[in-house]
From TrEMBL:
The keyword Secreted appears for this protein: yes
Species of origin: Sinocyclocheilus rhinocerous
Domain CTCK: 1-86
Protein name (record): CTCK domain-containing protein
Keyword terms, alphabetized: Disulfide bond, Secreted
Predominant localisation class: secreted
GO cellular component: extracellular matrix; extracellular space
Disulfide cross-links: 13-62, 24-78, 28-80
Length: 92
């Protein structure tokens, strides 16, 4: 999990304090293996995705001096999640 800080701007409103913005980043296992029985390359892939998220609230101050609440998604944790790979027949 990678954390950065940034200001949030929505319409004419900007966050009073910078917020922590999270993202998932990292290497996950991928594998290609030939299947004799099926005569195809079998691909196994996984990708780094969010596992647990929460909704956080930030206060934004608008150009007319009003203050509004804004909800955003905060990533609590990440993990390597299996994804579908395209299996293609080998040429030959």
């Amino acid at each position: 999990r990678v954390t950065n800080t940034t200001d949030v701007t929505v319409n004419d409103c900007k966050s009073i304090h910078p917020i922590e913005v999270t993202s998932c980043s990292g290497h996950c296992d991928t594998e290609s293996m030939y299947s004799m029985g099926a005569n195809i390359m079998m691909h196994s892939c996984s990708c780094c995705q969010e596992m647990k998220t929460s909704i956080k609230k930030v206060q934004l101050k608008c150009s007319d001096d009003s203050v509004i609440d804004h909800n955003y998604v905060y990533i609590e944790s990440c993990k390597c999640t299996p994804v579908t790979c395209e299996n293609q027949k080998t040429s030959g």
